Each structure stands twice: as structure tokens, then as C-alpha cells.
């Protein structure tokens, strides 16, 4: 069973997938979207779901540090509902607090230039979201 992790922004969606055993997350790509124009990259996402035979999607849910939710979280909640309706597979919202900052720290430690970081940060954040989810499942076993 493969699981897909998504980091949904207003301009891009970072995509990661698990290995077939659900142990590790690997970055796949960043899909350009335009939330203002209701362009969400569904066609490309559908192709990736089919290619990797995805059974479940985990989407990073941007809570505030105090646990409350704001406008961005509501936009992600709508995206998740649309994805579940479109692809007919379960979608889970996963607390993503600090995932982008953690991804940024990893890329900085790798001494990656700002220009290169900008190209991969969303994909890396999707990896962090998915890996945290996979790790939480292992700890419950």
C-alpha cells in the first residue's frame, strides 16, 4: 500500500510517496497550481496517483502554533475534500506545524543555494509530512 504526502500551498503542491511497505517517504515533484484561478493540478496529481498506485493521501494541515486554524487551514481542508471526491481514496489531514522549517533546515545543512532550495522546499516539506505520518503509524504497532 503506497501513501502519497502533499504540501499544499497557493502556488505549488509538493508531492511525496511512500515505498510499497510504508516505511519511508521519497520526494516526487512539485506541481504548479494557481489557487486564485481554481487550478489545482488535478490532472498531474491523478497521473501520479495511478503511476504509484496510491491507496491513501496525507495532506499537511497548517495549524497555528496554539493549535487553532486559520484561512490557510480552511483552504487546505477544501482541497482535501476535493481530492477525496475526485480520486475516491481516503484523505487524511496531518498536522504539519514546523515541517517547512524542518525541511528548510535540512536543505541549509546540505549547503543548498537559495535558488535551489526554492525549487525543492515544497517537495521536501511533503516528504517531512509523509514521513512523520508513517513514523506515527509504526509507533502504534
Question: Can you tell me about this structure?
Answer:
It holds the Pfam family RuvX. It is found in: Cytoplasm. It comes from Caldibacillus debilis GB1. Keywords: Cytoplasm, Hydrolase, Nuclease, Ribosome biogenesis. Could be a nuclease involved in processing of the 5'-end of pre-16S rRNA. Helix 3 crosses helix 4. The radius of gyration is 14 Å and the shape is globular. The longest helix is centred in the last third of the chain and has 26 residues. It starts with a strand and ends with a helix. It has four helices and five strands. The chain has 141 residues and is an alpha/beta fold. It has one domain: YqgF/RNase H-like domain (Nucleotidyltransferase, domain 5), CATH 3.30.420. A five-stranded mixed β-sheet has the order 3-2-1-4-5, sandwiched between helices.
Explain briefly what this protein structure is.
The protein is of the alpha/beta class. The protein has a single domain, classed as 2-Layer Sandwich (Nucleotidyltransferase, domain 5). It has helices spanning 42-52, 71-87, 99-109, 114-139; strands spanning 2-8, 12-18, 25-32, 54-61, 91-95.
Amino acid at each position: 500500500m503506497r501513501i502519497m504526502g502533499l504540501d499544499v500551498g497557493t502556488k505549488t503542491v509538493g508531492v511525496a510517496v511512500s515505498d510499497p511497505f510504508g516505511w519511508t517517504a521519497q520526494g516526487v515533484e512539485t506541481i504548479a497550481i494557481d489557487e486564485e484561478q481554481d487550478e489545482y493540478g488535478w490532472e498531474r496529481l491523478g497521473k501520479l496517483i495511478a503511476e504509484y498506485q496510491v491507496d491513501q493521501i496525507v495532506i499537511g494541515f497548517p495549524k497555528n502554533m496554539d493549535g487553532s486554524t486559520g484561512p490557510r487551514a480552511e483552504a487546505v481542508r477544501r482541497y482535501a475534500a476535493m481530492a477525496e471526491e475526485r480520486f475516491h481514496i481516503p484523505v487524511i489531514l496531518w498536522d504539519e506545524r514546523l515541517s517547512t522549517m524542518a525541511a528548510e533546515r535540512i536543505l541549509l545543512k546540505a549547503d543548498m543555494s537559495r535558488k535551489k532550495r526554492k525549487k525543492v522546499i515544497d517537495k521536501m516539506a511533503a516528504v517531512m509530512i509523509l514521513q512523520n505520518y508513517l513514523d506515527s503509524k509504526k509507533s502504534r504497532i
